[in-house]
Amino acid sequence: ALSPGPQTHTPLPGHCCFFAPGVKRMWVPNNRLPPCTLRQALTYFLDITTVPSPQLLQLLATLAEDRAEQEKLQRLSQDSLLYEEWKWFRCPTVVELLEEFPSVALPTSLLLTQLPLLQARQYSISSAPDAHPGELHLTVAVLNYHSQDGKGPMHYGVCSTWLSQLSPGEMVPAFVRSAPSFQLPEDPTAPCILVGPGTGIAPFRGFWQQRQHEIETRGLPSSEMTLVFGCRSSRHDHIYCEEIREAQEKGALSRVLTGFSRDPDYPKTYVQDLLRMQLAGYVFKVLSQQEGHVYVCGDVTMATGVLQTVQQILANEGRMSLVEAGDLISELRDRNRYHEDIFGLTFRAQEVASRIRSLSFSKQGRKSSLLVDP
C-alpha cells in the first residue's frame, strides 16, 4: 500500500497546530496532523479530491451567505438519492465544490479539522520475491477521466498520477500487507485458473514468475496454469506479452486466453465469456475432480460476473441446481480453493454486490451462495 507524502515530517502526537479562526497567534493542538504548513497539509495529508460527505455539506450550508446555495447544500446533505446523483454526475473535488457554491466562506480551521485524511492506496504486488529478490513491482493504470458524462473537468487518480510523475531514485513510502488467502497452492502440481482483466493481471505476474523460477531452479515439472486475461482492445494486449510468451515456453503457463471488450476487429468478449465458451468443461474438472484452484483479481462487478459464470458452469456440467452449485462454491471458499482479490469498490458497486449477496441463505447450518442469472 502506498501513501504519497514527504519523508521529512514525523508526526508528533498532540502537537499538530494551526491558527484558530478569529484568534491571533493562538495555537490549537490537534492529533490528526503533524506540525506543518497549510500547503503541506493540503498537499500531503488531507484528501481534497474525494467527494465531500453529506455531513460536510451540512456544515458548509451554515457558512453559505447566499440563501439559494444554503438551501441546495441542505437538500444535498439530507436527500440521499439527490446526493448520490450529484456525487456520481459531478464527482466534485473540494475546489469544484467551492466553485459551485462561491458564497461559502470556508475557514482554514475547518479545512484542517473536517477534510478526511489522505488514505493509503493498496496495490497487488506483481512480482515474485524469489525471482526478483530485494524488489517490489507494481502494475498501475494511471487514472484520468472527465466528470459530468465526459463534459466536466478532468479528474486524476491521486496515487497513480503521483507515481507516474516520479523520477528514478525517488523515495516511495510504502508498507506490505499479507494476503494469506491469495497465494499459490502448496502443491505445485495443482491446476490453477487465473482470471484477471486489466490491472487485475498484477498478482498473476508474480504467480507465473514464481512458477518459472521453481521450474528453472528446482527442476519442477511444467505448471498447469491457465491465464484468462481481458482488456479493451488488441492494442492493449501487449502488456507483459514477452514475459507471458517466455512463461509459456518455459512451462510456467500452460494456456493463455485473451478477450477484448471494445475492439471493432473482435467480438465483444469478457473474461466470464471466455470461461463459459472455452473453458466450461475444464473449470468443472479443475474444481470438482482435480483439487484445483480458481483465482479472480479485479473490480467487484467483474468478480461478481465471474462468480455467477462459475456457478452456472458447475450447475450445467455437474447436472446440479444453482443452489447446489452455490453450496459447492461456498465449500471451495472455505477450503481456500476459490480465491478473490477485489478492488475498486465504489458505493454503487458495493450496492450491486450487497444486493446479490443478500440472496445468500443458510441451509442446515452451511453458508450457501445463491446467484441469479445476470
From TrEMBL:
It is an enzyme of class 1 (oxidoreductase). It catalyses: 2 L-arginine + 3 NADPH + 4 O2 + H(+) = 2 L-citrulline + 2 nitric oxide + 3 NADP(+) + 4 H2O. Pfam families: FAD_binding_1, NAD_binding_1. InterPro entries: CysJ-like_FAD-binding, FAD-bd_FR_type, Flavoprot_Pyr_Nucl_cyt_Rdtase, FNR_nucleotide-bd, NADPH_Cyt_P450_Rdtase_alpha, NOS, OxRdtase_FAD/NAD-bd, Riboflavin_synthase-like_b-brl. Its EC number is 1.14.13.39. Residues 63-185 form the FAD-binding FR-type domain. SUPFAM superfamilies: Ferredoxin reductase-like, C-terminal NADP-linked domain, Riboflavin synthase domain-like. Its cofactor is FMN; (6R)-L-erythro-5,6,7,8-tetrahydrobiopterin; heme b; FAD. This is nitric-oxide synthase (NADPH).
